[in-house]
Amino acid sequence: MATPKITINRAPVLTLWGTVVAERLGYDHDTALTLGKAVAGLNAQSKARRWGIVEVSPAQREERKPRGQEPGKPLMITILGRPVPVMSAEHGVRATVKGQPIDPASVTRYLRQKFGPALAEVQSAMEALTQAYSPDTLAAQAYALYEQFRPDIPEGQKGWGAAGHLDLDAIRALAD
User: Fold this and answer.
1) What is residue 151's DSSP assignment?
2) Where are the beta strands (DSSP E) in 66-167?
3) In sequence order, what E strands does 17-91 have?
4) What is the total count of domains within the chain?
5) CB-CB contact of 87 with 69 (8 Å)
6) How confident is the model at residue 1 (pLDDT cuts 50, 70, 90)?
7) In angstroms, what CA-CA distances link 160 with 132, 163, 168, 174?
């Protein structure tokens, strides 16, 4: 029997969506996992700054630049309309946090923990949605699609970290 609604925070939903979109755009699974995690983290940082929860100093901005790249020219991959810093790592391209590559295995553990037994079903619904669009159209509209199915939570700071309902039927309807 289907689980049409799941109660979950937005961050893991955006992480999974970013991963699924990156795979549809041609990135290997491990690279896609790191891109999904990075875009969700960058989104959270932007909201925290906008709401005044945190401030970013010039030193912190400098820390976020990828290490090992030519100064002034970090490698970036755009996912969900957001440029994500990346680097070449031992096993391929990885998104970075504070100049360090994200471990794809840690993202897998995070997604399994947050979605639990619903992970496969949610991922399948998201994959069907990405298949409904050409890669170029998906690249341009991926974040707007996310905004149509993301969990409903209160606006502003009171929604920070709050769980909402993720409606799988809404994701499936967008694919039709």
Assistant:
1) P
2) 76-79, 82-89, 92-97, 100-101, 163-167
3) 76-79, 82-89
4) 1
5) yes
6) very low
7) 31, 9, 22, 26
CB 95 within 8 A of CB 130: no
Write the single-letter amino acid at 91.
H
Instruction: Record the pTM.
Output: 0.83
Confidence category of residue 3, pLDDT binned at 50, 70, 90: low
Q: Which of 106, 64, 110 is nearest to 86 (CA)?
A: 64
8 Å CB contact between 114 and 106: no
Domain that holds residue 105: 5-175
CA 37 to chain CA centroid, nearest Å:
5
Within 10 A of 135 (CB to CB), how many other CB atoms are there? 12
Which tokens hold the place of 5?
């609604």
C-alpha distance from residue 114 to each of 86, 122, 130, 142, 168 (Å) = 25, 12, 22, 22, 16
At residue 93, what are phi and psi to the nearest 5 degrees? -75, 135
Structure tokens that stand for 60 in this block? 């912190």
